[in-house]
Design goal:
Layout (H helix, E strand, L loop, with lengths): L6 E6 L5 H7 L3 H9 L1 E5 L11 E7 L5 H12 L1 E7 L1 H5 L11 H8 L23 E3 L6 H12 L11 H8 L4 H5 L15 H4 L16 H11 L3 H8 L7 H17 L1
Parallel strand pairs: 1-2, 1-3, 3-4, 4-5
Helix pairs in contact: 11-12
């Protein structure tokens, strides 16, 4: 504690920094947040050297290098509570697409000087390396979930975060189902609510940014996904786009691949 306020730090790993920007996008609420905590490290917001230890630590991004493995272990040691924010930190993110390929081949075809690249074979969530106390999903994370997490921790309670599927959020908002109305593939039935159904609200299917929901039914969902996609390949790629490295989404992808083999 510093002046009776929890010491808060925000760290970036392999990511686009969008989840850190979500914190800054709290705008008016950010003033109240800053008044309730002491932000001691947050490079995107202020220039201060690291000042350990931390009461609450937010971590954005996945672990993709050995240096990041060592850094997250040190951050965990210096933190009271550790909160991973965004799909990269909770599920490996878009960069986890490399987990299904030969990473050395990818490096060779992308970089002019591959000998300069140091990377792990897989992009992994923070929880694969250290204990995580709270996970806030999303691509980017929902700024109000960050506010709820901090408020809950200040009140010594667990954050109240949705676990039900995005379909319920669509229904509550009066959104027309894009799959039923237009035959658009949508991961909403197996994805957690929390984004305000942004994509279905503009006529697009859900991409699964908020990770797997607790009430998913893959046996019911897979036939619908197969029917609305042009091929098994498209269905698998949709599942693996953002949170595909989660066991639940990968199970769905494997079910489709196994079905394809069985039908050959």
């Amino acid at each position: 504690m510093e002046n009776g306020k929890p010491r808060v730090a925000v760290f970036k790993f392999s990511s686009c920094s969008g989840c850190q920007l979500a914190i800054l996008n709290l705008e008016d609420e950010l003033l109240d947040l800053v008044g309730a905590v002491e932000i001691v490290y947050f490079l995107e917001a202020r220039r201060l050297p690291e000042s350990r230890p931390y009461d609450i630590t937010f971590v954005e991004g996945s672990v993709t290098t050995q240096e990041e493995v060592e850094r997250i272990i040190k951050i965990r040691e210096d933190s009271g509570l550790l909160i991973s924010i965004g799909s990269c930190a909770t599920a490996g993110g878009v960069q986890a697409l490399k987990n299904y390929k030969d990473v050395n081949h990818l490096i060779d075809i992308v970089y002019e000087h591959p000998e300069f690249i140091e990377t792990l074979e897989k992009s992994t969530p923070i929880s694969e390396h250290v204990k995580v106390d709270v996970e806030l999903w999303g691509c980017p994370v929902d700024k109000y979930q960050i506010l709820e997490a901090v408020s809950a921790l200040l009140q010594n309670r667990r954050p109240n975060l949705p676990e039900h599927s995005l379909c319920l959020e669509c229904k509550a908002l009066g959104r027309v189902c894009v799959t039923v109305a237009s035959g658009i593939p949508c991961l909403g039935p197996i994805t957690k609510a929390g984004c305000g159904a942004i994509c279905p609200s503009v006529g697009r299917g859900c991409y699964g940014c908020f990770g797997p929901s607790k009430d998913m039914d893959l046996d019911a969902f897979i036939p619908i996904l197969r029917e609305t996609t042009s091929s098994p390949k498209e269905a698998v790629e949709l599942l693996r786009t953002i949170c595909g490295y989660t066991p639940e989404f990968e199970k769905a992808a494997q079910m489709i691949l196994e079905e394809e083999v069985a039908n050959e």
